[in-house]
DNA sequence: AATCACTAGCGCCCCCTGCTGGC
DNA sequence: GCCAGCAGGGGGCGCTAGTGATT
């Protein structure tokens, strides 16, 4: 460490000792400086001296306020990705983002082969091993592994006037957007090899068209005796 | 020496999205 | 088709630690 001022050096030298003379009277945690202790005690008591001039939020430190203002008001994002257009308020967010380009997964699960790009995802993954279901539906007390899963449960099961998604090709209504995706893939995607109807010579490149076609055979007497002219529907 | 603003860095929790597989 | 499990990408805040500048 080097510094222009002797006072900065004197202060710096102290970080190499364990000396932390300022102790919180509420939790006994110790700090190197009075300012750190004051911020810590303010966090205990909910004292937030730094008020945002554009909304109701308030913070313990000026740094927290500055960050909040970037997120909510100035929208300034100083950390730019060199590969794509992404930018972020915080350096750590850019770091996390860049892993989506590099594929780097530094956080490995010690119970399986999974590895994550950030610590939170690993933490979320770990509950798949514990079997824990931390989220409870306030209406029916059903339990869930992720908050988002619970949220969609509450919407679908207990919500009113829940919108449904209509298939653009066949007028089927489906509750979940992702299930519409499954529907489109399974029934409306183009199949390179046409599938033949099991009752006639017709062939289709789309599974939905095939099932619709098969319905036209419903009232036919499809099952014929090969010894005589007998035929029946079933 | 005390105090301020500022940066850096860890963590926590949430959101939305979309796929999977059992029913 | 409905449903819960589960992973990817990302937003926003809580808090601590250290440094430069000023009082």
TrEMBL record:
Protein's UniProt keywords contain Repeat: yes
Concerning InterPro entries, the annotation shows: Znf_C2H2_sf, Znf_C2H2_type
Protein name according to UniProt: CCCTC-binding factor
PROSITE patterns, per the entry: ZINC_FINGER_C2H2_1, ZINC_FINGER_C2H2_2
Q: Which organism is it from?
A: Casuarius casuarius (Southern cassowary)
Q: Pfam families, alphabetically?
A: zf-C2H2
Q: Where is the C2H2-type domain?
A: 22-49, 50-78, 79-106, 107-134, 135-163, 165-189, 195-222
Q: Where in the cell is it found?
A: Nucleus
Q: Which GO terms describe its molecular function?
A: DNA-binding transcription factor activity, RNA polymerase II-specific; sequence-specific DNA binding; zinc ion binding
Q: Which SMART domains match?
A: ZnF_C2H2
Write out the similarity annotation. Answer: Belongs to the CTCF zinc-finger protein family.
Could you tell me the gene encoding this protein? Ctcfl
**Main localization, broad class:** nucleus
| Record's keyword terms, sorted | Activator, DNA-binding, Metal-binding, Nucleus, Repeat, Repressor, Transcription, Transcription regulation, Zinc, Zinc-finger
Q: What is the lineage of its organism?
A: Eukaryota, Metazoa, Chordata, Craniata, Vertebrata
- What GO cellular component term, any one, is given? nucleus
Gene Ontology annotations of biological process type: positive regulation of macromolecule biosynthetic process
Keyword Transmembrane listed? no
Question: Entry's Gene3D superfamilies?
Answer: Classic Zinc Finger
């Amino acid at each position: 460490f080097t510094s222009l001022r002797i006072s900065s050096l004197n202060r710096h030298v102290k970080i190499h000792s364990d000396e932390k003379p300022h102790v919180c009277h509420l939790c006994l945690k110790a700090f190197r400086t009075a300012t750190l202790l004051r911020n810590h005690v303010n966090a205990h008591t909910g004292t937030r001296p730094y008020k945002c001039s554009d909304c109701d939020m308030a913070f313990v430190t000026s740094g927290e306020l500055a960050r909040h203002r970037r997120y909510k008001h100035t929208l300034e994002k100083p950390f730019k990705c060199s590969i794509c257009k992404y930018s972020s308020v915080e350096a750590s967010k850019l770091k996390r983002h860049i892993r989506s380009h590099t594929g780097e997964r530094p956080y490995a699960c010690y119970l399986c082969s999974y590895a994550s790009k950030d610590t939170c995802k690993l933490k979320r993954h770990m509950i798949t091993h514990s079997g824990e279901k931390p989220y409870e539906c306030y209406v029916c007390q059903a339990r869930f592994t992720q908050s988002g899963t619970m949220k969609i449960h509450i919407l679908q099961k207990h919500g009113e006037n829940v919108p449904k998604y209509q298939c653009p090709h066949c007028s089927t209504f489906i509750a979940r957007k992702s299930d519409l995706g499954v529907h489109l893939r399974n029934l409306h995607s183009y199949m390179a090899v046409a599938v033949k109807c099991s009752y006639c010579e017709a062939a289709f490149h789309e599974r939905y068209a095939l099932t619709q076609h098969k319905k036209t055979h419903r009232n036919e007497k499809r099952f014929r005796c090969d010894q005589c002219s007998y035929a029946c529907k079933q």
